[in-house]
Amino acid sequence: xxxxxxxxxxxxxxxxxxxxxxxxxxxxxxxxxxxxxxxxxxxxxxxxxxxxxxxxxxxxxxxxxxxxxxxxxxxxxxxxxxxxxxxxxxxxxxxxxxxxxxxxxxxxxxxxxxxxxxx
Length: 119
Prior knowledge:
The model has no long low-confidence stretch (mean pLDDT 92). A five-stranded mixed barrel has the order 1-2-5-6-7. Helix 1 (89-98) runs antiparallel to helix 2. The chain contains two helices and seven strands; from the N terminus they run βββββββαα. The radius of gyration is 14 Å and the shape is globular. The chain is an alpha+beta fold.
């Protein structure tokens, strides 16, 4: 199936995949080719996992946005997204410990930490 991972700032990835997994407000959902159409709201500070047709597993931290599924496509539209390989986990942990009042920054940092832990 065709998959696109898009953040407000840029298109992070597009290609073909065998499965996509995302954390939505209704719980974690796994999508394979032929899945019923669905629109899901991504959680704040969640993760998305994409397994490509080549067997590569991509993990991204996503903050807010939506997951749109048709029978042949999956589009992840996130407010922000970062691949686990690009995340500075120590900087994310520092945000969690030092930004007690900034709940959005903490949610983004926790999502980044989760993405690194899942990869």
